């Protein structure tokens, strides 16, 4: 099963319920905006969740931008993240 969680900003942190859910996940693919602010936050998330794998958008600042700008297939991008773990 795959779930998506929108943080609403790179400085946002999960609430207690979301945190507990993430701690139980076998894998977390994290895609923060691939800019300076996003890059700086990856270490926080990796410390908090050892089951986390950074999975930034390969083409644009975010997966949403890549889907809009270059029509990146989000489902295939997620499948690629799952298959390489």
Protein described:
- By secondary structure, this protein is mainly α.
- It has a domain of 28 residues.
- The protein contains four helices and two strands; from the N terminus they run αβαβαα.
- Strands 1-2 form a two-stranded parallel sheet.
- Strand 1, helix 2 and strand 2 form a beta-alpha-beta unit.
- It starts with 15 loop residues before the first helix and ends with a helix.
Q: What's the arrangement of secondary structure elements?
A:
Layout: H1 16-24, E1 28-30, H2 36-48, E2 52-54, H3 63-69, H4 74-83
Low-confidence stretches: none
Q: Compute the number of helices.
A: 4
Task: Calculate Rg over CA atoms.
Answer: 13 Å
Number of strands: 2
Share of helix, binned: 40-55%
Order of helices and strands: HEHEHH
Short description:
The protein is mainly α and 85 residues long.
Main attributes?
85 residues; mainly alpha; two-stranded parallel sheet; 4 helices; 7% strand
């Amino acid at each position: 099963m795959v779930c998506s969680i929108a943080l609403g900003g790179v400085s946002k942190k999960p609430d207690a319920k979301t945190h507990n859910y993430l701690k139980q996940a076998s894998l977390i693919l994290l895609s923060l905006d691939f800019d300076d602010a996003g890059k700086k936050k990856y270490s926080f998330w990796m410390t908090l969740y050892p089951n986390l794998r950074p999975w930034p958008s390969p083409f644009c600042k975010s997966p949403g931008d890549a889907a809009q700008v270059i029509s990146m297939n989000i489902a295939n991008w997620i499948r690629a993240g799952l298959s390489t773990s």
